[in-house]
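User: Some background: our group keeps a shared notebook of sequences we're curious about, and every so often someone picks one and asks for a predicted structure to add to the entry. Today it's my turn. The entry only has the sequence so far, pasted here. Could you supply the structure so I can complete it?
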Amino acid sequence: DFTEEIIDYFEANIPRLFKRKKDIDVAYAVLELMVRRDDIENFNKKALYVLIREMTNIETSYITKVVNVFKKEYKYLLREFEMKGFIPTKKNKFF
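Assistant: Of course. Here's the predicted structure to add to the notebook entry:
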């Protein structure tokens, strides 16, 4: 499942993608929302940002910065998945 592979990829790569503690905290909060996606009732952007702010106590501008990195990586991951049928991670040893 593509979503599960994305979660695995980000779990393995958050420390590489982000250096500042604030950014890492936000990234793990976003990842937690991805894991709990089935339990979330409202998927609009504003509601998700509020959830992340509540989890991290960090301003929206920092959240946006991290989300933009996730979006950039997502585009790369989608291409990889479409070409190879999987996302290279440490788990599957093609990273």
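Suggested note for the entry: Residues 15 and 75 are 19 Å apart (CA to CA). The helical segments are 2-17, 21-35, 45-56, 60-84.
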